[in-house]
Specification:
Elements: E1 9-11, E2 14-15, H1 16-31, H2 37-46, H3 54-63, H4 77-80, H5 88-99, H6 103-117, H7 138-143, H8 147-150, H9 152-158, H10 161-172, H11 175-190, E3 192-193, E4 196-197, H12 199-229, H13 245-258, H14 264-279, E5 286-290, H15 297-311, E6 316-321, H16 324-338, E7 351-354, H17 365-371, E8 378-382, H18 383-391, E9 407-412, H19 422-434, E10 439-444, H20 472-478, E11 482-486, H21 495-509, E12 511-515, H22 519-532, E13 539-542, H23 548-563, E14 568-572, E15 586-590, H24 594-601, E16 613-618, H25 629-647, H26 659-672, E17 680-681, H27 683-686, E18 690-691, H28 692-695, H29 700-710, H30 722-733, E19 737-740, H31 744-756, H32 764-771, E20 774-777, H33 779-788, E21 791-793, E22 801-803, E23 808-809, E24 813-814, H34 819-831
Parallel strand pairs: 5-10, 6-8, 6-9, 7-8, 9-10, 11-16, 12-14, 12-15, 13-14, 15-16, 19-22
Antiparallel strand pairs: 1-2, 3-4, 17-18, 19-20, 21-22, 23-24
Length: about 850
C-alpha cells in the first residue's frame, strides 16, 4: 500500500494543494479591499497547513473510507473528530518566521497567525479574560504548543514544494509587513486627535482590522470547500451584478416618476427624495438623513444609496434595520421595484433578505447560499446580524464582515441602537468609513447624538455638512401633522380612564391607536375596551406574545379597516412604532422616551388626511418598568423635556418632537447613561465586572493580572480577549427561547409535523415555516410553562419547543396561564 501522504487531501476527493491555493486566491481578492492582498494570499496558503500531517491524513481517509478498517493505517475517525490539530502548524510557521525579525514584523506576524489559528473556533483570546484562565497569555501558549502536537516539522517536510516556495517568497518580501503596518498607521492617525491618541478606540479598531482579515480567510475557506463539495452552488454566487447599478437606478427612477402626487404630503416626500439624489454625489463618509415619520425615507434613502454606489463604484448596498417586521416590508418594496417581472435581468438576484429569527417564507437555495456571506448587490438585514458580524462569537457572522467594505451602509431607525452598543458601534462605523472605503447613512426622525458621546471611547465622526436634508427644521414644520398634548396627572391615569379616552377618540376621529410600554397594559386595556364597546370587532390587540403569523393577520385586518374608514381601536406594545405604515386619526402614548413619542406620532394622521391629528401623552398609574430600564430611563429624561416645553415652548420652536427638543432629550438621556455605552459585563458572567469595549481594546484587567503573575506583559500589539468578549456579547444579547405555538389551523399543522418528522434538524424548509409560528419567551415565563408541563421538546437535545394549544389565546397569544381560565375571568368581569 502506498503511503498516506502520497496524495494529501483536504476534504474527500479534494487534494490539499488545490484547497490551499483556491482559498489563497479568494482570500487575496477579498483582502484587496484594504490593499492587503498579499496578506490574504499568505494566510490562505497556510490556514490548513497542518493537514499535511500523517495523523490528519489517517483521520480524514479513515473517515471517508479511503483506508479500510482492517488496514494498519486505519483510525477511529469518530473518536478523533475535532481532536487532530490542523490549524496551529500554519500559524506557528508564520509566527516563527516573522517574530524572529523584530518588533514590527512580530506585530504583523501576530495578526496573521491569529487569523490562521482561529479559523475553526472564532478569534481566540490573546491575553485571556475568561474565568478559567484569567490573565494567561493564550496567544503565546498556542504559538508555543509542542511541535509533536502541531506536527509543524512533519508538515514542512511533507508539504508541496511549489506551495512552500510560494509561502517563503511571500514571507521574504517586505510587501506584506509594509502593507499591514501601513494600515495600522492609518488607524493610528485617524484616532490621534489634537496630538492625543485615543488608545481604547485605536486598539478596538486594530481588533477590527484583525477581524477583517479573519473574515476574508473564513469566507474564502467556506466558499472553496462548498463549491468543491456542491459545484452547482457556485452558479448561485454573484457574477458582477453589483456593477449593474445603472439597471437598478433606471428601475427606481421609473417607479418614482410613476407615483401620482395629489396630496401636499406627496410634494414634501418628493422634495426629500430630491435632497437624497442631490447628496448622492458627495464623497464617502458618515451622513445623517433626518426625516419626520411618514416622509418616505425608505425610497429616498434607497435613491441616495444606489446613485452613490454607482458614483463611487462600490460593491453593494446594505440596509440595516432594527426589527424583522421592517425587513419583511422594506425588502418586499425594494424587490418589487428592482426585480421587475417584465425583465430577466437580475430577477430574484438583486435583493437579498437575511435575518436570524424569521426567515422568508420562500427561500431558494440561491438565497440560502448568499445569506452565508451577503453576496448580493442589495442586502436587507437586522442590527443584530450586523453587530454579530463585527462582535459575535464563532465564525458564521464573522465570515460576512469583509462584505461591509466598499459598501453603502444604510441604518434605518438608528435611534433603536442599544445604548450598551454605542461605543462599539461608533468605532466600527468609523473603521468602515475611514479604512474600508464605505459610506454610512444614519436614518431616523429622531437623530441620536452619536457624534457627541465620549470621544475617548468612541464617537462617530460625521462628514462635514453631514445632514442630507437641506433645511431639517423647515421640513419638520412643513410635515407637522399632529398636535401633541402632554396630559400628565398627579398619581397617574388608571387603565379605565385611558380606555375611556381611547374610545372617545375613536368616536371623534374614527380610529385610535394606544401604544403602551408593557404587554400586561396592552392586555388589560384590550379587555376593558372589548367589554365596554358594543362591537367586539372594533378592538384589536398586538404584542410580541403573538407569533409573527398572528400579528400579520391582526395588523392586516386593522389596516383594511383604516383604509375603509371603519371604526378601530388598536392596543399595542411599541412593536408598531417603527416600520408600520399605519394612519390613525388619534394616538394615545404611554409616557416613554421622546424618541418613542415621536415614532408614535408618526402613526397619527400619517398621510395628512386630517387638518391635524391628536397625540395624547399620558402617565399610567398601574405600570411596572423595573425590568425595562431602556423605557424607564427614557421616560424620566422625556419628562424633563416635556416640563421644559410646558414652561417655554419657544425654546423648542413650539415643536415637542422636532429637532431642537430631540437634541435636548438625547443630551439628557446619553449623559444619564454614559456609563452604560461600553457594553458592561457583570461579574456573574466573568467573575469580575468589565466591559466588552475594554475586552476588545486595552483588556486592562487581564493584562494587569498577567503583569502581577509574570512581572511584565508581552511586547505585542494585540492584548485583546476576542473570544471572551464575543461570548459575553452574545450571552447578554440573547436571553430568550423560541417556542412554536399552534396558532390557527396552519400553526397546529406545523406543530404536528415538527413532532412527526424523522429528523427535524434536517428539514430546513419546515424549520423556516415554523419561524412564522414562534414566540420568543423570557426565562421566567418559560419556567412557568415547563412547571405546568405545557411545553414539549420535539426531539431530545434539539431545543425546539412547542406549546400546548390551551396556552395560546386567539386574542393575546402565548399565555403563562391556561387560556380557558383567562376567558372565564373575562366573562366574570362582564357580569359585574
Amino acid at each position: 500500500m502506498a503511503s498516506l501522504l502520497d496524495a494529501p487531501i483536504a476534504h474527500p476527493g479534494q487534494p490539499l494543494r488545490d484547497h490551499l491555493t483556491g482559498v489563497s486566491r479568494l482570500a487575496r481578492s477579498f483582502a484587496t479591499k484594504l490593499a492587503l492582498d498579499q496578506a490574504g494570499e499568505l494566510i490562505g496558503l497556510l490556514h490548513d497547513f497542518g493537514k499535511y500531517s500523517s495523523d490528519f491524513q489517517r483521520y480524514i481517509k479513515s473517515a471517508t473510507g479511503l483506508v479500510d478498517a482492517d488496514e494498519d493505517e486505519y483510525v477511529d475517525a469518530g473518536a478523533l473528530k475535532g481532536k487532530v490539530d490542523h490549524s496551529s502548524a500554519g500559524a506557528q510557521f508564520l509566527w516563527n518566521t516573522l517574530s524572529a525579525r523584530g518588533r514590527e514584523d512580530a506585530a504583523v506576524g501576530q495578526i496573521l497567525a491569529l487569523c490562521i489559528a482561529s479559523h475553526h473556533s472564532g478569534l481566540i483570546d490573546c491575553i485571556s479574560a475568561a474565568p478559567g484562565n484569567f490573565g494567561e497569555d493564550s496567544f503565546a501558549a498556542r504559538m508555543q504548543k509542542s511541535r509533536e502536537r502541531t506536527h509543524l516539522d512533519e508538515c514542512v517536510r511533507a508539504a508541496d514544494g511549489v506551495l512552500m516556495q510560494q509561502c517563503e517568497q511571500l514571507l521574504q518580501r517586505r510587501d506584506i509587513v509594509d502593507a499591514v503596518l501601513g494600515r495600522i498607521r492609518r488607524v493610528l492617525e485617524r484616532n490621534t486627535i489634537d496630538s492625543r491618541m485615543h488608545a481604547v478606540v485605536f486598539q478596538q479598531q486594530i481588533g477590527l482590522l484583525v477581524r477583517f482579515l479573519f473574515s476574508c480567510l473564513l469566507d474564502a475557506d467556506r466558499i472553496d470547500t462548498a463549491d468543491f463539495e456542491r459545484p452547482r452552488h457556485a452558479a448561485y454566487r454573484s457574477r458582477g451584478l453589483s456593477a449593474n447599478w445603472g439597471v437598478l437606478i433606471d428601475r427606481l427612477e421609473a417607479h418614482l416618476n410613476s407615483i401620482q402626487s395629489d396630496r401636499p404630503i406627496d410634494d414634501l416626500r418628493r422634495r426629500i427624495s430630491q435632497d437624497c439624489l442631490d447628496a448622492s454625489v458627495r464623497p464617502g463618509g458618515a451622513y445623517t438623513l433626518t426625516v419626520p415619520t411618514g416622509g418616505g425615507k425608505t425610497l429616498a434613502s434607497l435613491r441616495f444609496a444606489l446613485h452613490h454606489a454607482k458614483q463611487r463604484a462600490l460593491d453593494r448596498v446594505v440596509y440595516v434595520v432594527p426589527f424583522t417586521s421592517i425587513i419583511d416590508q422594506n425588502a418586499r418594496v425594494a424587490r418589487s421595484i428592482l426585480e421587475t417581472a417584465d425583465s430577466d435581468i437580475g430577477r430574484g438576484e438583486f435583493v437579498l433578505e437575511h435575518h436570524a429569527s424569521i426567515t422568508p417564507e420562500v427561500q431558494t437555495w440561491r438565497e440560502k447560499v448568499l445569506c452565508e456571506n451577503w453576496d448580493a448587490p442589495v442586502i436587507f438585514t437586522t442590527m443584530v446580524q450586523f453587530l454579530e458580524s463585527l462582535f459575535g462569537s464563532g465564525t458564521r457572522g464573522a465570515r460576512r464582515m469583509h462584505q461591509l467594505a466598499n459598501s453603502v451602509l444604510v441604518f434605518d431607525e438608528i435611534q433603536t441602537l442599544p445604548v450598551k452598543c454605542v461605543h462599539l458601534f461608533n468605532n466600527a462605523v468609523n473603521f468602515l468609513v475611514e479604512q474600508c472605503n464605505s459610506t454610512v447613512l444614519l436614518c431616523t426622525a429622531t437623530q441620536p447624538l452619536l457624534h457627541k458621546v465620549d470621544d475617548a471611547k468612541g464617537a462617530i465622526r460625521l462628514a462635514p455638512g453631514h445632514e442630507v436634508i437641506r433645511d431639517v427644521r423647515t421640513l419638520f414644520d412643513d410635515l407637522r401633522r399632529v398636535e401633541i398634548r402632554y396630559e400628565r396627572r398627579p398619581g397617574g391615569w388608571p387603565h379605565a380612564d385611558i380606555a375611556r379616552l381611547a374610545m372617545d377618540e375613536m368616536r371623534r376621529a374614527g380610529s385610535c391607536l394606544v401604544i403602551v410600554n408593557t404587554k400586561e397594559s396592552a392586555r388589560v386595556l384590550f379587555q376593558i375596551c372589548r367589554e365596554r364597546l358594543a362591537r367586539r370587532d372594533e378592538v384589536f390587540h398586538l404584542s410580541t406574545d403573538m407569533c409573527p403569523a398572528h400579528r400579520k393577520v391582526v395588523l392586516g385586518t386593522v389596516l383594511e379597516r383604516l383604509a375603509r374608514e371603519e371604526p378601530v381601536i388598536c392596543l399595542s406594545t411599541q412593536l408598531i412604532e417603527a416600520g408600520v405604515d399605519a394612519d390613525f386619526g388619534a394616538v394615545v402614548r404611554f409616557l416613554a422616551g421622546l424618541d418613542s413619542i415621536a415614532q408614535a406620532a408618526g402613526r397619527c394622521n400619517r398621510n395628512g388626511r386630517l387638518k391635524s391629528g391628536v397625540v395624547h401623552v399620558v402617565n399610567p398609574r398601574d405600570e411596572r418598568l423595573d425590568s425595562l430600564p431602556d423605557i424607564s430611563k427614557g421616560r424620566d429624561q422625556a419628562e424633563r423635556v416635556l416640563q421644559d416645553f410646558v414652561e417655554d415652548p419657544f425654546r423648542y420652536g413650539h415643536d415637542l418632537v422636532g429637532p431642537l427638543a430631540m437634541n435636548e432629550f438625547y443630551r439628557y438621556y446619553f449623559f444619564d447613561r454614559r456609563k452604560e455605552m461600553d457594553y458592561p459585563v457583570s461579574a456573574r458572567a466573568l467573575g469580575y465586572d468589565d466591559t466588552v469595549l475594554n475586552l476588545l481594546s486595552s483588556n486592562t484587567q487581564a493584562v494587569t493580572e498577567m503583569q502581577r503573575r509574570n512581572g511584565a506583559a508581552p511586547d505585542l500589539i494585540l492584548h485583546q480577549s476576542f473570544m471572551t468578549a464575543a461570548r459575553a456579547f452574545k450571552a447578554i444579547d440573547a436571553p430568550t427561547q423560541g417556542v412554536v405555538v399552534p396558532y390557527g389551523p396552519k400553526g397546529k399543522e406545523v406543530v404536528g409535523r415538527l413532532h412527526g418528522v424523522f429528523d427535524v434538524e434536517l428539514d430546513s424548509a419546515l424549520l423556516r415555516e415554523a419561524q412564522q409560528f414562534t414566540v420568543n419567551v423570557f426565562p421566567n415565563v418559560l419556567e412557568k410553562l415547563r412547571s405546568a408541563g405545557v411545553v414539549t421538546e420535539v426531539k431530545a437535545g434539539a431545543r425546539i419547543l412547542t406549546l400546548d394549544e390551551r396556552y395560546y389565546s386567539p386574542d393575546f397569544g402565548l399565555s403563562a396561564e391556561q387560556v380557558a381560565d383567562l376567558e372565564s375571568l373575562y366573562v366574570d368581569s362582564k357580569q359585574h
